TrEMBL record:
Name of the protein described by the UniProt record: O-methyltransferase
Matching PROSITE patterns: SAM_OMT_II
One function term, GO molecular function aspect: O-methyltransferase activity
Residue intervals of the O-methyltransferase dimerisation domain: 16-90
Organism from which the protein derives: Candidatus Kentrum sp. FW
KW Aminoacyl-tRNA synthetase (keyword) present: no
Keywords of the record: Methyltransferase, S-adenosyl-L-methionine, Transferase
Pfam families: Dimerisation, Methyltransf_2
Residue stretches making up the O-methyltransferase C-terminal domain: 150-281
Residues in coiled coil: none
BP GO annotations: methylation
């Protein structure tokens, strides 16, 4: 008689991981179909189906599934948005993230076979896209949606809590793209002025957004490549959020350039992810960067890499505190001072 094998664990997590793909597909499908535009007020599945032109029976199944994962509420047969979807998935709201979510999807593998191909063959960095200024401009504008959804506001609040903040006169948002981090930070200060530094396509977007928020008198832009070009000087504050990940082997020289561009008593703030436990944790960071790393280039950093570079060039009094990011969990906010 053959006995069944003894087991000491359960396979639940494997199936949770597999069905996680379905949740992502549900979100993307709902955004593509503009479901949440039609559930601002309580609405039946038949009415939603009529509005978006879908099969009534399958629409009800789909809406039930959206309710099961917290993207809709269902009461007395009617569906309505949750606070989350009402804030971030209704089109035409300033905090809408639908376009940004679809942009992020372009970096994800469509199938497991696509991921397997990248693992086998290595990354295929698209140099043509890197040289396509229109694509970079469009990407920057989509990333501005993410910034408006609360990340820039939270960053500005954190920087405003620095003890030196009141004495700042000029700041640099290095690799600032759309410029909203700089705009939000300058708006927290009564008189400080700001400069957004990035490539030409990105600062084109920043100029438009600076105009949108009526900040032309206090915000300006500077186009260039921070790896090779001057970044200006006379700054009291330099901010680099998710910027130094892309410095690669030039990290130390870029941090040295930042040190030189600061006034004495100036402050450098780097906000970045940081991997630990031999680059296997935190899970959200490792998994969040995986598709980009496999398909293009690995820009993840070990937790100590940027602080070590800051110490090496002369920054003193380094402080590290957690800074929440909706993507990747808590990042590190490292503050260094030029004494």
């Amino acid at each position: 008689m053959k006995r069944l094998p003894k087991t000491t664990t359960v396979p639940d997590k494997l199936f949770d991981l597999q069905f996680g793909v379905v949740r992502g597909q549900m979100l993307t499908s709902a955004v593509d179909l503009r479901v949440f535009n039609h559930t601002v007020e309580p609405t039946t599945s038949n009415d939603v189906a009529g509005s978006i032109g879908t099969h009534p029976g399958n629409t009800e199944l789909f809406l039930n599934a959206l309710a099961s994962i917290g993207l809709l509420e269902k009461k007395d047969g009617a569906y309505r948005n949750t606070e989350l979807t009402d804030a971030f998935l209704v089109e035409d709201k300033e905090t809408s993230l639908g376009g940004y979510l679809k942009f992020i999807e372009t970096f994800l593998f469509k199938t497991a076979d696509d991921m397997k191909t990248a693992i086998v063959n290595g990354p295929s960095f698209n140099e043509q896209w890197d040289a396509d200024e229109e694509a970079q401009y469009n990407a920057t504008m989509l990333m501005s949606d993410f910034a408006r959804s609360g990340t820039s506001q939270a960053l500005a609040k954190a920087i405003a809590e620095l003890p030196e903040f009141g004495g700042f006169a000029k700041m640099l948002d290095l690799g600032g793209g759309h410029g909203l981090d700089g705009i939000a930070t300058v708006q927290m200060h009564p008189s400080m002025e700001g400069v957004v530094f990035d490539k030409a396509a990105a600062v084109r977007a920043a100029k438009e957004i600076i105009h949108e928020y009526g900040m032309e008198d206090r915000m300006s832009v500077l186009a260039g490549d921070y790896l090779t070009d001057p970044i200006g000087s006379g700054y009291d504050l330099i901010l680099a959020k998710g910027t130094l990940n892309f410095a690669g082997s030039n990290l130390e020289s870029v941090v040295q350039k930042i040190f030189g561009a600061l006034n004495k008593g100036g402050v450098f703030v780097s906000i970045h992810d940081g991997l630990t436990e031999e680059r296997t944790k935190p899970e959200a960071m490792v998994v969040g960067w995986l598709s980009f790393g496999l398909g293009s280039m690995d820009v993840s950093l070990a937790k100590e890499r940027i602080p070590d570079a800051m110490t090496a060039v002369g920054f003193l009094g380094l402080e590290t505190r957690p800074h929440h990011s909706p993507i990747g969990g808590d990042w590190d906010m490292v503050v260094g001072r030029k004494v």
